[in-house]
Amino acid sequence: MSVKGKIVFITGASAGIGAATALAFAAEGARLLLAARRAGKLSEIASAALARGAEAVHSIDLDVRDRRAVQKAIDELPEEWSAIEVLVNNAGLSRGLEKLYVGKIEDWEEMIDTNVKGLLYVTRAVVPGMVVRGHGHVVNLGSTAGDLTYPNGAVYCATKAAERALNDGLRQDVLGTPVRVTSVDPGMVETDFSLVRFRGDSERASKVYKGVKALTPEDVAEVIVWATSRPAHVNIARVLLTPVQQANSLLFSREES
Ligand code: 8X3
User: Fold this and answer.
1) Domain ranges of the chain
2) Measured distance CA(155)–CA(44) in Å, rounded
3) How far, in Å, from the CA of 3 to the mean position of ligand 1?
4) Which of 3, 9, 52, 223 is the most exposed place for a label (fewest CB within 10 A)?
5) E strand intervals along the chain
6) Is the distance from CB of 102 to CB of 152 less than 8 angstroms?
7) How far is the CA of 22 from the centre of ligand 1 (A)?
């Protein structure tokens, strides 16, 4: 099933896995609806996507934590952009790495508001149209963190465990319609994920990836495009992918330097 000419809506599209996914769909000739908080960065991705082969690009300056803004953005889409075929619920982040009982409540709220509530708001705004049109595919970004909780990361891991439950729940709730639902769950991916988690502490962030050949955002994007281009009767429920040097969220084989 080709994604050429289809409208693909990607949240968190200004960097990392979101940006790589935009470019991967662009290479397939999709029409891209890109959303992110950073309008400047998003316009760079939009230009790169057009150069890569996207049929058209429409960008939206959007914070998925803002429930009303999400609904308004979807309600007010220009007619030619309203029939979203693929939704990639990618917007998400981690903040902090510390024991639960001393964690920062503001960090918890930012993660829960973005990774869980934001995913829900976008899903709630987009999926009814897919059901009515009788076409659609939702791809949610999960994580090895949702599969196995690691120390000091309880809240981030809980948001990804929630994503897994929501992915499974949505798949059950659209049963009887042609809408497909997939969770793509990467392990270690080298993006600015750790830099965001540690609020710009690049030394601490680089230690996370030390001695491991991490996945690239492009590795993950490839899986997302693959899942959405299976024949219409095939639903890929969940893909868990890690670097070869990672077995799960706790177990790595790091090269000594
Ligand atoms: C990102 C993977 O293990 O850094 O979701 O939390 S991990």
Assistant:
1) 7-241
2) 32
3) 29
4) 52
5) 7-11, 31-36, 56-61, 86-89, 137-141, 180-186, 238-241
6) no
7) 21
What are the φ and ψ backbone dihedral angles of 145, each rounded to 5 degrees? -65, -25
Q: Determine what percent of the chain falls in helix, strand and coil, rounding each to the nearest 5.
A: 45, 15, 40
Closest-CA residue to 236 (of 164, 182, 165, 163): 182
Can you tell me the distance from the alpha carbon of 156 to that of 143, in angstroms, rounded to the nearest whole number? 10
CATH T-level fold of 7-241: Rossmann fold (3.40.50)
Neighbours of 239 (CB within 10 A): 17
**Which residues, in sequence order, are bridge partners of residue 189?**
215
In the reported structure, the alpha carbon of residue 55 is separated from the centroid of ligand 1 by a whole-number distance in angstroms of 33
How far is Cα 121 from Cα 123, in angstroms, rounded to an integer? 5
Q: What are phi and psi of 6, to 5 degrees?
A: -85, 150
Comparing CA positions, the residue from 181, 71, 65, 69 lying closest to residue 119 is 65
From first to last of its 257 residues, the chain has per-residue pLDDT tens of 899 999 999 999 999 999 999 999 999 999 999 999 988 999 999 999 999 999 999 999 999 999 999 999 999 999 999 999 999 999 999 999 999 999 999 999 999 999 999 999 999 999 999 999 999 999 999 999 999 999 999 999 999 999 999 999 999 999 999 999 999 999 999 999 999 999 999 999 999 999 999 999 999 999 999 999 999 999 999 999 999 999 999 999 999 87
123 lines ligand 1 (CB under 6 A): no
Q: Catalytic residue at 150?
A: no
Q: Which amino acid is at 59?
A: S
Tally the C-alpha atoms within 13 A of residue 29's C-alpha that lie toward its C-beta: 6
